[in-house]
Amino acid sequence: MPEEQLFKTEARRTRTEIAEALVAAAEEIESGTVDLKDESERQRVALPERPLFEVELERLTDSETGEMRYELEYEIRWTEAGAA
């Protein structure tokens, strides 16, 4: 089955705003249910007790500007079978 994007949002924020969003996300993750929302979309997802957690830091060259770009990603993965 091909990848299906269920939710995505992207906006420039201050470090403080990002930290506040991550703290709020951490509280939801700990509770087991995460609400993702912006002005036009909303998704709610239940997380299993022990999903896979990945932290990744990448350095890339921006194809449009040629500038060095960094991406810091926090990813949580699980399968539907793993959620049972």
From TrEMBL:
It holds the Pfam family Amphi-Trp. It comes from the Archaea. Residues 1-82 form the Amphi-Trp domain. This is Amphi-Trp domain-containing protein. It comes from Natronomonas salsuginis. The lineage of its organism: Archaea, Methanobacteriati, Methanobacteriota, Stenosarchaea group, Halobacteria.
